[in-house]
Structure formats: C-alpha cells, structure tokens
Amino acid sequence: MKKNIIIASLLAGAFLTTMSCGNKKVDGPNPDADSTEVNEGDKAKAGNVDPWPWDFPRDVKVDVEKGQYVMVPTGYEKFTKEDKEMDKRAYVFYKADVIEPGVGSTKVEHIGREYNIPNAFVIPIPSDATAKVGDILLTWWQSGSGLKRAIVTDASDPKAPTVSYLDLSWSIKDGEVKKFKEDEKIKPGTFRVLKEGEWAPGMQVAYEEDGQKKAGHIISFTDDKVLISGFANHIYVAKRSDCKLISLKPSFKPGDKVFGLYVDSYEDKFTVKKFDKKNGRVWLEDNRNTTCIKSILEVANNL
User: Fold this and answer.
1) Is 197 left (phi over 0), alpha (psi -120 to 50) or beta?
2) Which end of the chain is more exposed for a tag (fewer CB within 10 A), N or C?
3) Do residues 259 and 77 touch, judged by C-beta distance below 8 A?
4) In the 8-state DSSP scheme, what is residue 295?
5) DSSP three-state, residue 159
6) pTM as predicted
7) C-alpha–C-alpha distance, residues 165 and 295, integer Å
8) What is the C-alpha to C-alpha distance for residues 100 and 106, in angstroms, rounded to an integer?
9) Confidence band, pLDDT 50/70/90 cuts, at residue 9
10) In which element (H, E) is residue 2 found?
C-alpha cells in the first residue's frame, strides 16, 4: 500500500522515473537574485489561501526582458483561487514567454494563456547560450514538457546541442538498458549552462531535514535561504548552510561506496558497479543486491 502511494505521488508530480533500487527524481529559478523583504501587508489572501506561505522573499529581483524564455510554475495563479493550501501543491515548471517584467511579479504567456508569477518562481533562460560535450544544462523536455536537466552528448552545433535528459530514467529490463527517451537535439536559446560549484537555479542540492539528506533543486536563493523544488514537485525552504550542491563533474569507479537517491533522500547504502561519464549515468547496487541506473544528479561521493 505504501509503495502504491509513493508511485501515485510520483505520477501526480510528473516524475518519469522508476522505483527499482530506490529510484526516483526531483525537479527549479532565478540566478543572482537580490532579495527584498516580503511585505506582510501585501500578502492579500486570494480566496481562502495564503498565496505565499513560504518563508522566503517573494519579490526578488529577476533580470528578464519581453519575449525572453523563462521557466515558471504555470499552475500557481490558479492555485491561489482555490481552497487547498499552497504549500501542499505540486508545482511543475514549464517554458513560458515574458510579456511584461515586473518588480514583484512577471507576466508570462504559456500556450496561449497569460499568468502573473511571483519573481521568486521565475527562472530566466538566456537567448545566446552555447554548450560543449559534457556540459549540464537547465532546459525543458522539448518533445514533452516540464523543466529538465540534461547532459550534452553532441555539440556539433554549440547553440543547438544534442542532449540526454538526466531527469528521465534509464532502467534495466531482462538484462538490457531501457531509456525512457533517446537523445534529443534542442533548439537555440532554450537552455542555460549549469556550472560546477555555482549556486544557480536548476542546481541539484541535498538539504538537511529531520536528520535526512533530502533531494531537490534550486529555484531561487538569497544569502541565507534556498527555495527548493523537492519530492513530488513540492516547494521547500532550507537554510543555505543546510544545503550542499551535488557535483556536476563527479568521479566514480566500481566498488565505490556512495550516497544514492532513495525515494526523496540520499542514503549511503549503494555501491558503484559502472560509470558512464558521457551519458551521466551510474550503475548502482543497493544493500539488497538490486542493480539500478541513476543519473549523476542522484549520486554523491560525500554528503
């Protein structure tokens, strides 16, 4: 019963990974944000819910311009008009076009509809990024939907590289590797390059909560707080001092004892069997001798 509940949550959160070997995935925006304090007087209730229940500044500065691509949770505005508490919702980030930048919120358009999104939820995508093989990108699943991180496998065209989506699963069936999605060439101006050790939207983190090392990725951050998209696309806030960036350039060898993602947390019960550096995948064996394949965002040497 418990397993069924977990799987249902993953489906509801649009997570496209398997539960074998504790497999799962998580999904985040706004770089170099200059935070301002949230004005409690401005937190007018919409319907019966608090539109911003998180202990994180909503009206951060975000550098975007009209027509630019951004990643935003388009469901936010609809949720403010309903009765379910906002922090109990799942927030899937989609590609949108900026219509009008604002001080506290940004107006965007997504498949013909306009939305006003708090700036803390706005992830800018640069229009002129270039990539090389091995780079980790923040983009979206361009033949599907939703925010994804990806590793570049072919950069013959640096502005339109071919990628393998790290947030889409690989599995093992009857001894053969099954990819949820084959590599895909993405369009120019649809990605940002993530940098090793740099605090930025899309970077994977492990954050401390109740003695566990929870997994998520950065949406926005200040000097002392991080807004995180975590398990089942729920939003969390953590102290920056309680977060550790997951390496984008890890080194693994067979026999290494590592932390691997198990449901929503990193646990130190895995052993490396194989590392495919080009595709950013690690074959792990857990303490039940079950083998699974995880992305490099789901594995860490030390936490």
Assistant:
1) left
2) N
3) no
4) E
5) coil
6) 0.85
7) 9
8) 6
9) very low
10) helix 2-12
